[in-house]
Design goal:
The chain has helices at residues 17-20, 73-80, and strands at 3-6, 44-49, 58-61, 67-69. β2 (44-49) and β3 form a beta hairpin. The chain starts with a strand and ends in a 22-residue tail after the last helix. With 102 residues, it is an alpha+beta fold. It has a four-stranded mixed sheet with strand order 1-2-3-4, covered by helices on one side. The protein has one domain. The relative contact order is 0.24. Helix content is 12%, strand content 17%.
Length: 102
């Protein structure tokens, strides 16, 4: 399964991360949906949010970026709320492919 990793910068005052990343549907899909209910696309991939969980927590249509829940909204919110206590310096990720690993 293909996975995309996203980095969300910590923005103060975020109350609902699901609204920030545009998750509208409440239906839970343990496996990726066969097609996108928004555009009909068939390429649905896992979406990992850096710092929220060790693997993907959402599904995303590659064509229109519609997001689908892998877990319940309550559990997904709990995972995303970890981002409130996290600080990421996005400059550390500039030209990362050219840097030696730690």
């Amino acid at each position: 399964m293909k996975i995309r990793t996203a980095i969300l910068s910590n923005q103060t005052g975020i109350k609902d991360w699901l609204k920030v990343i545009n998750v509208n549907d409440s239906k839970v899909y343990k496996k990726p949906p066969k097609n996108c209910s928004n555009c009909g696309g068939h390429k649905i991939i896992g979406l990992e949010i850096l710092g929220a969980h060790k693997s993907c927590i959402l599904w995303e249509c590659q064509k229109c970026q519609e997001k689908y829940l892998k877990f319940t909204k309550a559990y997904t919110r709990k995972l995303l709320n970890k981002l409130n206590d996290m600080s990421i310096n996005l400059e550390d990720f500039m030209d990362i492919e050219y840097k030696e690993p730690n």
